[in-house]
Write a structure and sequence with these properties.
heterotrimer, A mainly alpha, B alpha/beta, C alpha+beta, A: mainly alpha, B: alpha/beta, N-terminal domain of TfIIb, Dimethylsulfoxide Reductase, domain 2, 6-stranded mixed beta barrel, 22 helices, 28 strands, globular
Chain lengths: 96, 709, 243
């Protein structure tokens, strides 16, 4: 897959969209709330910061091709209050 | 016939081939290894062995062994042999230069599953302390990383719950996506003992392998599903369990969370996963699905053994979760004869997993983002550590192609042959400025390297391996390293050259460090292992001599979890242009990419990779047994010989990946598991046609077998 | 549980598989020993450090009882039972050596020796050779007769060879392929003097279903099945056989 890659990006935007949507597919059966939380946790724990930055950049440009709930989850990455340790296991409602 | 020569000395060590980790006696005359005999006290093998560990050890002094370090400015130049000090100083200087120019995160490393625990530990320490980032990965990425993710999410521990002997207590054995007769033969022999006593066998595998039927063993149910549909089938099995109320309610209420179970029950119990719906979708009889589910749930002891046929899919982690969910629902955990057991492929891939050779966790699967864990490492190692997850191996290649990843230190791995989508991997290496490869032979990857450091085989060093049972056993030195240094010594020199001073007198000190920093290894030491033979982690105050069976009274997080496993078909679809599905696997006599076994007489059994195709598909294409064919996918095309085989059904073809010449990975795709990026090797849409041009390479093995040892 | 696999020990061959079971105490040559119920007398003798000479028995395989070397005397029992197939009983009194037993064993071993390459006896170190030394048999009283000394060597497998001239048809290889490996590639073909070890449909090892696991080589007591790597000079039959 080739595409224009902005400097600092670690991969092709198409691939980022594919990977992010795949995560979205897994969490789709969970109720809204835990669903976005689960995706957000996964991105925070497993994605290199530049990949997360790349995703955010795509969303800033309109997020074409990304599932809405994936976009909602990625937006949560910016909320500092949600910063906490990585977590294995099913998504749970966010602690207040 | 004259009398055979009697060996003079023997050393007890552990086989470096597959994840069974058989104990062997390496017998020598002078400094020559004359034979390897199985160790009766080996707890993984009980005195048995297979063709690889028993006989295929000659590679260690094959003429092709790399015996001198070498460097070169560009990959188009010939190698220039230099001393160890020059090679290592050059490698370190290059990595430092690249970091100055392209940033701290522009370099990384990969450890080897054929190297010892101590060496893997030093590799991740090199990356974390020496390079200052978390771009460290291991080859479990491309095989069992979904096991770690899926089992930890459900059960809390990403490793086999049982030891091998536990199979002797099983009443029902469910094999999913694995062929133990070929991939883990010594374990398969143990399993067959139990099957001959009357245990029942269920096999989920697209192919009709020897594990389905062989001498005195026949599966009660064989589910030959279409590649890519594991989760659908496993959810259908779960459907039967919940709808027919075959689940173990007492177990679930005591050990899991009932509301989570209800949520899961609603998903798999829905009409979507009814066997009458899923059966036709995946290509198996609905009644066979019901029979398998009932057999498994009834037990009384049902054990799951699974392999890469579950993990190497775009829903690999989800598939593993399905297995965890099934075992939880039916109460098949926490005693002998049950469990969920990944058959780890390589001698020390479990070690790589446990010891944190991952971009997102330290040893014991503890996150790099977790300050408490990080603090213990920072205190022991004496410096600040990166708190962000690093790049996974496939993402390192993506970043290289994008121009932001420029240097790599690779120990004992051959990504160009073993990773999918070969053109992409090669393109990535071509973009890098310094590729350092430490290996015992030249490989496909060394073609793209700038620094070559001689590796040492497991016969040439002291250390430990962790097998698929979580069993830590000793690797003992039988002969001196051919190039003068053991792998761990090289990595120590690399760290010192990067400016991070370390020193160890003996590998036992490295295990001591691992023990200080890893709860599961807390009680491990060479003394303990020497005393009791081998130790299964966790080994700590509660279990001073190790733990055979996990989850007996409690799960690592207290209770276990049910994960929601919706079936998401892979993006890889058959089309008119590519109407067949290719799946891949192993053969008994060859080991992985064949670096070692291709240089032994094992080539007489498997001199080339062939394409297995059924009679009907072959006839349709005018292909006869032995014809050269072109196997193509949307990514590439390769040439192989065809073999008509009853093991594959219409629509399915199969090949192995042991020979570099066949370039099996030139046609596998970029698709991978959603959670771990484990490549989807098991599902590729392909077409087979008679080859227009017969390749120049000879029919039989081109590799010469080395001089007798 | 599963003492058959878990209680094996390197450096000692108990003769028959260890068992799980209630303790049983018996006496072997005056030495009291306690073993699990269903263990064989041979195993008890080995535990008591009074091992009985054997050929077709090995602790990785179930007892077979064909070689007739492991005979013992048991008080209160008639005849000379094979210790490998006799289960222990509480209070048993076993004798492993006596003039009668020696004569019987010597007779059996001399018969084996009459069909074995005599030139290879002095420097041999296989279990068969050790048993001969232990019982004190170095020659046999029989003249030349029919033998298997010219049977062709099967060197088809790159790693090990099978020389029928040294085969004593103890069936340990056949049983190892069944019980330990589970491939069932070997059988004993024919009967009486004609008995021979055959791979699959009497094919060479390489052409048969053999998966080259080495269990048969490990089990063979006479180096009939043996690793090629132990012959640095090669393995041509150096001398023709002689009686």
């Amino acid at each position: 897959m080739s595409g224009i890659v902005a400097s600092g990006m670690v991969m092709d935007p198409e691939r980022l969209v594919l990977m992010a949507n795949q995560i979205g597919d897994f969490f789709a059966p969970y109720p809204p709330g835990p669903r976005e939380e689960g995706i957000r946790n996964h991105l925070r724990t497993y994605w290199d910061p530049r990949m997360r930055a790349g995703l955010r950049a795509l969303i800033a440009e309109g997020g074409v091709g990304l599932y809405p709930h994936v976009i909602a989850a990625a937006v949560l990455l910016d909320e500092p209050l949600r910063e906490r340790k990585g977590y294995y296991g099913p998504p749970k409602p966010p602690e207040i | 016939m004259p009398n055979p020569q009697k060996p003079e000395h023997s050393v007890i060590t552990t086989c470096a081939y597959c994840g069974v980790g058989c104990g062997f006696k390496a017998e020598t005359v002078g400094d020559r290894i004359v034979r390897m005999t199985p160790w009766k006290e080996g707890k993984a093998n009980h005195g048995h062995s297979c063709i690889k560990g028993r006989f295929a050890f000659d590679y260690y002094n094959h003429p092709d062994r790399v015996r001198h370090p070498a460097i070169r400015q560009s990959i188009d130049e010939p190698w220039q042999e230099v001393s160890w000090d020059v090679a290592i100083a050059h490698a370190a200087a290059e990595l430092q230069r690249i970091q100055r120019v392209h940033g701290r995160a522009s370099v990384g490393g990969v450890s080897s599953s054929r190297c010892t625990n101590e060496e893997i530990w030093l590799m991740q320490k090199f990356v974390r302390a020496g390079l200052g980032n978390n771009n460290i990965d291991n080859c479990a990425r491309i095989c069992h990383s979904p096991t770690q993710f899926g089992l930890t999410s459900t059960l809390g521990a990403g490793a086999a719950s049982q030891h091998f002997d536990s199979v002797l207590q099983a009443d029902v054995i469910l094999i999913v996506g694995a062929n133990p007769t070929e991939g883990h033969p010594v374990f398969a022999s143990l399993m067959k003992r139990r099957l001959r006593q009357g245990a029942q066998l269920i096999v989920v595998d697209p192919r009709r392998t020897e594990s389905v039927e062989s001498a005195h063993v026949k599966a009660a149910v064989h589910l030959p599903l279409r590649p890519g549909t594991n989760v659908a089938l496993l959810d259908a099995l779960a459907h039967v369990v919940v709808r027919e109320q075959l689940y173990d309610e007492a177990f679930i209420r005591a050990r899991c969370y009932w509301p989570e179970f209800e949520q899961w029950m609603a998903l798999v119990g829905s009409d979507r996963y009814d066997p009458d719906v899923i059966g036709p979708e995946v290509g198996v009889e609905p009644d066979a699905i019901r029979a398998a589910a009932r057999l498994y749930a009834r037990g009384p002891n049902s054990a799951i053994y699974y392999g890469l046929g579950v993990t190497e899919h775009s829903q690999g982690s989800t598939g593993v979760m399905c297995l965890g969910n099934l075992a939880l629902a039916c109460g098949m955990l926490g005693r002998e004869g049950v469990g969920v057991n990944p058959l780890r492929g390589q001698g020390n891939v479990q070690g790589g997993s446990c010891l944190g050779s991952w971009p997102h966790v330290f040893s014991g699967y503890r996150f790099v983002t977790d300050p408490d864990t990080r603090n213990t490492f920072e205190a022991e190692w004496g410096l600040r550590l990166d708190d962000e997850p690093g790049l996974r191996l496939p993402n390192m290649f993506d970043a290289a192609v994008a121009g932001t990843f420029k240097g790599m230190y690779i120990m004992g791995e051959d990504p160009v042959q073993s990773d999918p989508n070969q053109q992409h991997t090669i393109a990535a290496f071509r973009q890098m400025e310094c590729v350092i490869v430490q290996d015992i032979f030249h490989t496909e990857t060394t073609k793209y390297a700038h620094v070559l450091l001689p590796g040492s085989s497991s016969l040439e060093k002291e250390g430990t391996f962790t097998n698929a049972e979580r069993r830590v056993s000793r690797v003992r030195k039988v002969i001196e390293p051919l190039a003068g240094l053991a792998d761990w010594e090289v990595t120590v020199k690399m760290m010192n050259a990067m400016g991070y001073a370390v020193h160890y007198d003996h590998p036992s000190q490295i295990l001591d460090e691992i023990a200080r920093l890893s709860p599961a290894y807390r009680g491990m030491s060479y003394d303990l292992i020497d005393r009791v033979g081998s130790v299964q982690w966790p080994c700590d105050a509660h279990a001073p001599e190790g733990t055979e069976v996990l989850h007996v009274t409690t799960f690592p997080r207290g209770r276990a979890n049910f994960m929601l496993t919706q079936f998401v078909p892979t993006a890889e679809r058959t089309t008119d242009r590519f109407p067949l599905l290719l799946t891949t696997g192993r053969i008994l006599s060859q080991y992985n990419v064949g670096t070692q076994t291709r240089r032994t007489a094992n080539v007489q059994w498997h001199g080339e990779d062939v394409l297995e195709i059924c009679t009907d598909d072959a006839e349709l294409r005018g292909v006869k047994d032995g014809d050269w064919i072109t196997l193509s996918s949307r990514v590439g095309a390769i040439t192989l010989r065809a073999r008509i085989s009853p093991r594959v059904h219409a629509g399915l073809v199969y090949t192995t990946f042991h020979w570099a010449e066949s370039k099996a990975n030139a046609i596998t795709t970029e698709l991978s598991d959603w959670a771990t990026n484990c490549p989807e090797y098991k599902v590729t849409a392909v077409e087979v046609v008679r080859a227009a041009v017969v390749p120049a390479r000879s029919a039989t093995a081109a590799q010469t077998v080395g001089a007798p040892s | 549980m599963w003492a058959e696999v878990r209680n094996l020990r390197e450096g000692i061959d108990l003769g028959t598989p260890p068992r799980d079971g209630a303790p049983v105490t018996l006496t072997v040559d005056g030495v009291e020993v306690t073993v699990a119920a269903r263990s064989s007398v041979m195993l008890a003798a080995a535990q008591a450090r009074r091992p009985v000479p054997k050929l077709c028995a090995t602790d990785m395989l179930e007892a077979f009882g064909s070689c007739r070397v492991c005979l013992v005397e048991i008080e209160g029992k008639r005849g000379f039972p094979a210790s490998c197939t006799t289960p222990v009983e509480p209070g048993m009194v076993v004798r492993t050596e006596s003039p009668h037993l020696h004569a019987l064993r010597k007779g059996v071993l001399e018969l084996y020796l009459s069909d074995f390459p005599v030139r290879e006896i002095p420097d041999g170190w296989s279990e068969f050779h050790e048993t001969l030394q232990r019982v004190g048999v170095t020659s046999h009283p029989y003249g030349a007769g029919r033998n298997h000394l010219h049977a062709p060597v099967d060197a088809s497998n790159p790693y090990f060879l099978f020389d029928p001239a040294k085969c004593i048809v103890c069936s340990r290889c056949v049983r190892a392929c069944e019980e330990v490996q589970g491939t069932f590639a070997l059988t004993v073909d024919g009967r009486g003097f004609e008995s021979k070890i055959a791979a699959s449909q009497d094919q060479s090892f390489m052409d048969s279903e053999c998966v080259s696991c080495g269990a048969c080589v490990q089990a063979c007591p006479s180096h009939a099945l043996v690793e090629k790597s132990l012959f640095p000079e090669g393995y041509d039959r150096a001398e023709s056989a002689e009686a």
